[in-house]
Design brief:
This is Helix-turn-helix transcriptional regulator. The chain is mainly alpha-helical. 73% of the residues lie in helices and 0% in strands. The chain has 18 helices and no strands.
């Protein structure tokens, strides 16, 4: 027992099932199929005919699948080390919005090395899919084929198969971000609220989820409620010694105060964000300038400066292919023009 049954895995995927959906189809606990595929248990005889039908194979074919423990394709450990190093390079590229190089590095592995079932290969494959989702999210490709949502969903299936609960929860958090970016603010806020107390996540991710409850509520027009989530998150980021998250949280607080009509407190909060700006990467610069421009538009005396900041942020977004940021800037401009 304990040999991974690659034939069974291939048949299950070819039939369009995840481990969980196949278990549900068979009326079993959702962990059962994973146990079969790892060779840790056997399908009971009375379940085998239904399993064969679900997989679209004969009874004999099912027995062959169960007997098959295809050898793991051996890859030199150097391949895995190089793969891991390339993924670290991808993370750096994404931080700089070097999307073309990030995609090239990811394609090197997701296009050529399909994991053969060994846990280390699967983990690197899942991490690759997660980073591909991050890339597409930053580019504003949120839904549909070749989108962030598709990549995150595939990564989640891999990490579920590995039993990597923290990675699964992180992807649930990212899917909530996509809902918020897509305008589903109230549902996103509820997902964030649940994840803010989810022990699968570490303290930083739980605090980010709490901050993002406030962000989603602020976008939904519930700014007073948003502030009650953002302020505790600021204190927690300080306790965790996370200066970048702490600075970004002050940006969010400033916008919530603006939405609540308190421009004085908005200005104070944003000055903290300006004094402790998290960095000068294009995405960070665009987000800060967009928030600053949005705030300056609230006062006729500073509106021209706000429009100039938004114009610069739009140019940077276009230059680096950050389409979601560009759409957000266009929305702020249209709202200002309607009110002017």
């Amino acid at each position: 027992m304990g040999t991974r049954r690659h034939g069974l895995i291939r048949a299950r995927k070819a039939a369009g099932y995840t481990q969980e959906t196949l278990a549900i189809e068979l009326g079993l606990d959702t962990t059962t199929v994973g146990q079969w595929e790892r060779g840790k248990s056997e399908p009971l005889p009375y379940k085998r005919p239904k399993l064969a039908r679900a997989l679209g194979v004969t009874s004999r074919g099912l027995e062959e699948l169960l007997a098959e423990g295809a050898a793991v394709v051996s890859r030199p450990s150097a391949d895995y080390e190089t793969w891991a190093d390339d993924l670290d390079r991808v993370a750096v590229c994404l931080g700089r919005q070097e999307f073309d190089l990030a995609k090239l590095l990811l394609d090197r592995w997701t296009g050529r090395l399909v994991p053969s079932g060994d846990d280390r290969g699967l983990y690197l494959y899942g991490r690759s899919l997660r980073l591909l989702g991050d890339l597409r999210q930053d580019q504003g490709v949120l839904t549909g084929p070749m989108s962030a949502r598709q990549s995150y969903g595939r990564a989640m299936a891999v990490f579920r198969e590995l039993g990597a609960d923290r990675r699964v929860a992180q992807l649930e958090l990212q899917l909530a971000v996509l809902d918020e970016m897509g305008g589903n603010h109230e549902p996103a806020a509820e997902q964030y609220r649940q994840l803010a107390t989810d022990t699968r996540l570490d303290a930083r991710d739980r605090t980010r989820a709490q901050l993002w409850v406030g962000t989603a509520l602020s976008k939904a027009g519930r700014n007073a409620d948003a502030i009650t989530f953002i302020k505790p998150a600021i204190r927690q980021f300080e306790a965790l010694e996370e200066p970048q998250d702490w600075s970004v949280a002050f940006q969010k607080l400033a916008l919530a105060h603006r939405g609540d009509g308190d421009l004085s407190q908005a200005g104070v909060a944003f000055q903290v964000a300006l004094d402790h700006r998290p960095g000068d990467a294009p995405m960070q610069r665009v987000r800060l300038d967009t928030a600053h421009g949005h705030l300056l538009l609230s006062d006729p005396a500073t509106a021209d400066s706000g429009l100039k900041l938004l114009e610069g942020a739009a140019a940077t977004s276009t230059q680096y292919g950050m389409m979601h940021q560009l759409q957000a800037i266009s929305g702020i401009r249209r709202a200002y023009e309607r009110q002017a």
